[in-house]
Amino acid sequence: MLKSMTGFGRAEQTVGDKTFQVDIKSLNGKQFELQLKLPAFLKPFEFTIRKLLSDKLGRGSLDCTISLKGTGNAKPVSINTDLAKAYYRALADLSNELNLDPSNILSTLVKLPEVITPTSDTLTDQEWQEFETVILSAIDDLNAHRLNEGASLEEDLTLRIDNILKHQEEVVKLEPLRQQKIREGLKKLLEDNVGKENYDPNRLEQELIYYIEKIDISEEQVRLKNHLRLFQVHPRRTGRRQGQKTILYSPGDRTRDQYDRFKSIRFHHPAVRGVDEGRARKSKRTGFECVIVFLYKRVFLKNILLLVAAAGCLCWISCSIPSGVFEKNVVVPGQQWASSFKPTINFEISPRDTAGLYNVYIVLRHTDAYNYNNIWIRGTVKTPGDTVGRSERYDLSLADNEKGWKGSGMDDIFENRIWIQQQTRFNRPGTYSYTLEQIMWDDPLKNVLNVGIRIEKVP
Description:
The chain is an alpha+beta fold. It folds into three domains: about 40 residues, no CATH class; about 150 residues, no CATH class; about 130 residues, Sandwich (Jelly Rolls). It is built from nine helices and 21 strands. Strands 9-21-12-18-17 form a five-stranded antiparallel β-sheet. The longest helix is centred in the first third of the chain and has 50 residues.
């Protein structure tokens, strides 16, 4: 039986000459967190009460309030009569000596230190045993509320899981057609935009082979099916803390696309807590929030972007370079940019180009899983005839906490063009080289796809 993390329980009972009311409220929480409010005379039992709640409830963010209702027999305070008499005699003598009215002495007397003090009474062993049953009754009431809500959540989850499994079967049927569809669509895109004779078909096939591992979704299908089976099995097992084992890490994303016939399924479940790890601007969710975007959509969109980018590079290399523009990108091995990987990009400047002004950009492509809002890069430029290059450090901003990623992109890949030199001249004709090195603390720096240089002539 699935048990919800949220609930409320209350119990009230008279113990001796005291009537206690215990209220317990439970909210989502990965660990056991307790806010305990109780009368002063129950302070000696605070650790015992905390341990009792921890043992019975396990985990969650709890708010427990224990209040005392007066019955007329309880003595919430005590009066120190001997001290009060001593104060009175001193005040009366002072009043007579100063010829003051002694009728207001009592109101002044009760305000003096330690005349009225809270009672030092506490619970006897017998009263504690009776009071413990009040706490247990409140815990039972809370658990009954959580089980009732958990039954409704389990029914809803089961319905959604069955729906996902049904759509996954449709994905399996469409999978054999995907590679051929991607190849034909990419060829048509290239022919329509650059012409059939302006790209290298052999190089295109090489790039398709390079991305074949990314195109395949067999691993994602198996993982999704195992996660769904875990959802179906664990909530029905007896024992505590089963919810922690049923966290579903979705391989999908939240992209909308009119070409995809499969829609995302979004469901919330407070019995399990999902944490969205990542860059600093992301917020952690307190409840279980899982978005499943079916695998056909996720991989199809992602690899269309990758293949179009690869085809763009092919056209750039195989076609004549457009006048006044140069761009070259280098793939980062394994999407992990190690500090030892320092790509060098060369380009030619003709004598007639030395008179022009140019803007120089660093081109960086990364995934949505990149952990930081910026990246530090050391760029070293070597001019023709020089043996030692000139180095500069660049702090490139990739995102901010309010608007998110600054780069353009689709699916979970973003491309940034950030200028590092504005209206600069290349005074010497010949071969120039730019060497790029990441100097972040992380080594390797994960989720960086490629890096490059773009040079544009100023009109």
